[in-house]
Amino acid sequence: MKSSKKSPASSGYIKTAATKNSAAPPPFPPASTLLPASNPKTSLSHPTPPSPSAFTSPNPPKLPIKSAPFSSTSTAADSSSKPPLPPVYHSFLNLIAAESNAVILSVDYRTAPDHPVPACFHDSWEAIRWAALHGSGSGPDPWVNEYADLANVFFAGDSAGANIAHHMAIRVGSENPGGGVNLQGVVLLHPYFWGKDRVGSESDDNPWTSSIADLWKFAHPGTSGVDDPLINPDMDPKVSDIGCSKILVYVGEKDILKDRGWYYKGILGRNGWRGDIEVIEDKGVDHVYFLFSPYVDSACTLRTKICAFINNQA
């Protein structure tokens, strides 16, 4: 992303394993090349160009698009020197793109302390609006016009990125970003939610309890506290506005945020959201383990579930 000041390098990526038929498709770059998109907050990547036979099918469908504000935190020690995208995220998103046959658009939002919350929410919404410009096939980026299906959109994120994905889904439900974006579902991996009152197995004796609250106040100095609707969905009067019909939530057994993921399902039910939500708990794992151990059985199963969710097989 770029702003009027020096900002983090762009870290959005798109990778696909198949393409739409076209007489003159946009050219594919060499393997692992990063392309700056026409939106300064994203860039494109497709390390594996398709074979020529991919263009011979008469009317193949466009690919689902997944907007992914992935990040394990909404803060950065030095955002001006932040790398384009941590390798663990690049690898994880590439695996999902290849396995689900979907276009992935990863958002590089600004981070605290240089850019406190709610900058990350503003940037993510701006990226969604940019993607929405391609709904009619006449957006600023020809590659996205050609291959991304804006009628088949999913939001996803991990940790703080999952929190952002949740709020972007609410915003889609309450104000259309334009361009015919059709949000089908949301994937929340180990979502960063919290609150003043303990839920489930949470304990004030856990040293991480105060750390989570302190981190939130550091990222958002203007917050009203840990019952701020931006971190506690139970305090958000708009929570039932989520603009999709299905949500997939993953939590880790050893993650202190685990019970918040389970609690989230109850929050939506109590507030009248009428979609389907599934919460899955991986046993014996901690926060965002799937990034650092992508080939353990539970991480492979997680990706398979995400792929089925995106392709309406779940």
TrEMBL record:
InterPro entries: AB_hydrolase_3, AB_hydrolase_fold, Carboxylest/Gibb_receptor, Lipase_GDXG_put_SER_AS. The active site is at 159. GO terms for molecular function: hydrolase activity. Residues 88-290 form the Alpha/beta hydrolase fold-3 domain. Coiled coil: none annotated. Residues 47-63 have a biased composition (Pro residues). Belongs to the 'GDXG' lipolytic enzyme family. This is Alpha/beta hydrolase fold-3 domain-containing protein.
